Automatic annotation (TrEMBL):
Gene Ontology molecular function, alphabetical: FMN binding; isomerase activity; oxidoreductase activity
The name this protein goes by in its record: L-lactate oxidase
Alphabetized PANTHER family for the sequence: 2-HYDROXYACID OXIDASE 1, S -2-HYDROXY-ACID OXIDASE-RELATED
Positions of the catalytic residues: 236 (proton acceptor)
Cofactor(s) this protein cannot do without: FMN
Taxon lineage: Bacteria, Bacillati, Bacillota, Clostridia, Eubacteriales
Keywords from the UniProt entry: Flavoprotein, FMN, Isomerase, Oxidoreductase
Family stated for the protein in its record: Belongs to the FMN-dependent alpha-hydroxy acid dehydrogenase family.
Segments forming domain FMN hydroxy acid dehydrogenase: 37-339
Entry annotated with the keyword Oxidoreductase: yes
């Protein structure tokens, strides 16, 4: 299956909620929540993409010719590429009912594993939205990371125990989901989390705990204090606050504060292998991609997910060759040029 075929099929399915734009930049879908857009005027989603595009790579091919290694080792596991599928939930509401939270993650977890990477799965108002994907991860040798909403700690601890029982690779909590009012309307409210509450959760498990939704150095230091193994620099794809800065803008300062002390992921507007390399050069250890992976799943199922991942991986390898990077460790800030 070719990538353009996947996109064409997805466009025919998703046309009411997602236009499958040539550049997924938040303009055509602005304000569509529920849907795939950003909150309000869509400013945060749009800014994420604009600022990634305004960051360029410096060409440098005057280096020795050696093999290019795109692999990364995180939490004791080696992955083929340093990017992963971001968690997405409520597929029937936000995308199209041809996939639900269970069938979507069947494609996502399996397709990512086939490509040598990992999917982060989601959570929602119904327990089945969290529990179903856990079994899928278990069936894929535990290669996956469930993401828990910031419920009260009693519920969060229950879900941590469930994740442990299914042998997952890591565990995340999208603390930026505290702004999702639809969950409160469904009778399942989410909350802001103090360092003390997060420390209770991190201390309760041997699984690496990743806190998603960190946008400042102070927030990253709080995550470190709480005992997190990693963070995701994320503004929730622009879906919880209209006027947030872009993630790539805040990444260097966050990396300066905590690089080497915990694993730094980032999401928000990364669409190509060149974009992945930009994020690594500015301090990330890995990148999460959301909406384009959803398009791949709708347009091609498991095969679509694998094809998309391999496409981005090949683009990353080519970008590394053209910037003189033999391994991901060579992706340093001098590889980037900003307007």
């Amino acid at each position: 299956m070719k990538y353009q075929e996947i996109r064409s099929q997805a466009r025919s399915i998703l046309k009411e909620k997602c236009k499958v734009c040539e550049d997924c930049n938040g303009i055509a879908c602005r304000g569509q929540v529920p849907g795939v857009g950003g909150k309000g005027l869509g400013s945060s989603f749009i800014r994420n993409r604009v600022m990634v595009r305004e960051t360029s790579l410096n060409l440098d091919t005057l280096v020795p010719a050696t093999e290019t290694d795109t692999s990364v080792t995180l939490f004791g596991k080696k992955f083929r590429f340093p990017f992963f599928a971001a968690p997405i939930g409520a597929l029937e509401i936000n995308y199209h009912p041809s996939l639900n939270d269970l069938t979507y993650n069947e494609h996502m977890v399996a397709g990512c594993r086939e490509a040598g990477i990992m999917a982060f799965t989601g959570d929602g108002a119904k327990m089945e939205y969290y529990e179903g994907p856990l079994k899928i991860i278990q069936d894929n040798e535990g290669v996956g990371a469930p993401t828990i909403k910031p419920w009260d700690n009693a519920m969060a601890l229950q879900k941590i125990r469930m994740a442990e029982a299914h042998g997952v690779t890591a565990l995340a909590m999208d603390v930026d989901a505290a702004g999702l009012v639809l969950l409160a309307m469904a009778g399942t409210p989410v909350y802001n989390k103090s360092v003390e509450e997060l420390k209770e959760l991190c201390d309760s498990t041997a699984l690496p705990m990743i806190l998603k939704g960190i946008m400042t150095p102070a927030g990253a230091l709080k995550a470190l204090e709480a005992g997190a193994a990693g963070i995701v620099v994320s503004n929730h794809g622009g879906r919880v606050m209209d006027d947030a800065p872009s993630t790539i803008e805040v990444l260097p300062a966050i990396a300066e504060a905590v690089k080497g002390k915990l694993t730094i992921f980032i999401d928000g507007g990364f669409r190509s292998g060149e974009d992945i390399l930009k994020a690594l050069a500015l301090g990330a250890d890995a990148v999460l991609i959301g909406r384009p992976f959803a398009v791949a799943a709708y347009g091609g199922g498991t095969e679509g997910v694998r094809v998309y991942a391999e496409k981005i991986g090949q683009e990353l390898k080519e970008a590394m060759i053209m910037t003189g990077c033999h391994s991901l460790a060579d992706a340093t800030p001098d590889k980037c040029w900003k307007r």
